[in-house]
Design brief:
With 239 residues, the protein is mainly alpha-helical. The chain contains 11 helices and 2 strands. Strands 1-2 form a two-stranded antiparallel ribbon.
């Protein structure tokens, strides 16, 4: 065989091997590419909200799995429009359409997952008693309705858009009640939570957060409806 023929054969062999390697790498890339589903897309949310949005009771970020779709949708809109303050959430949602935000909301609302054990233990009995009083019965002397009158007797929320308050971290509850009271968190008018939190004393806020975070959750699905009409009108809670 001539030198030229040998050289040509070698080049052809190397080219064939190179193309084979490229083909195998491309095939591997295609095989490794995850399916384009909401479940895969929403894995990014686990960075803050925990696996599948279920969070844990040791952190600051709230559980979003199993919350009513209407509530989750309203909060995504609120973050995007600036009624809730979180730079990361606003940045992520800034260019998302209403339709896609509803898809996200429905995805997390469809997840029925176990809750962690109650976070708060061994709280003072007087503090727990005051918190339970406010949650279940309110305080008529200060025109404070019971939390249960809107969030449901089981405090697991009410469809389509009223959230459950159990299974949330103690510090998160304190922060959100404080944000509403200070006007840093808002909802569609009439903003009943803003009005209610401004009637609560700092001690009452601690009592409510302590009692809520001390309750275990066996079944966290929202109620279908309330047994009676709420005593206050809320702009976004029942849309």
């Amino acid at each position: 065989m001539s030198a030229n023929a040998s050289s040509s054969s070698s080049v052809s062999c190397h080219l064939t091997c190179w193309l084979l390697v490229i083909g195998l790498n491309q095939a591997a890339a295609w095989a490794a590419e995850p399916p384009d589903t909401m479940q895969e897309r929403m894995k990014a949310c686990a960075t803050c909200h925990g696996k599948e949005g279920r969070a844990t009771n040791s952190g600051y970020f709230p559980r979003i799995a199993g919350k009513p779709a209407g509530y989750l949708y309203n909060q995504l809109i609120n973050f995007r429009e600036g009624r809730r303050q979180n730079a990361t959430m606003t940045y992520l949602l800034d260019h998302m359409s209403d339709q896609y935000l509803m898809e996200i909301a429905k995805h997390f609302a469809s997840l029925d997952l176990p809750y962690p054990p109650a976070q708060t233990t061994k709280a003072p009995s007087a503090l727990l008693a005051r918190g339970e009083q406010l949650v279940r019965h309110g305080d008529a002397s200060r025109s404070l309705p019971a939390c249960a009158s809107c969030h449901g007797a089981a405090m697991t929320g009410v469809a389509p858009a009223m959230p459950g308050l159990l299974g949330l971290p103690h510090d998160y509850l304190l922060a959100q009640l404080g944000a509403w009271s200070a006007g840093l968190r808002r909802a569609a008018a009439p903003d009943c939570m803003g009005e209610i939190t401004r009637r609560l004393s700092p001690q009452d806020v601690v009592a409510v957060a302590t009692w809520l975070s001390s309750q275990s959750v066996k079944q966290g699905l929202p109620a279908v409806s309330l047994p009676a009409k709420p005593t206050m009108e809320c702009g976004s809670g029942f849309r």
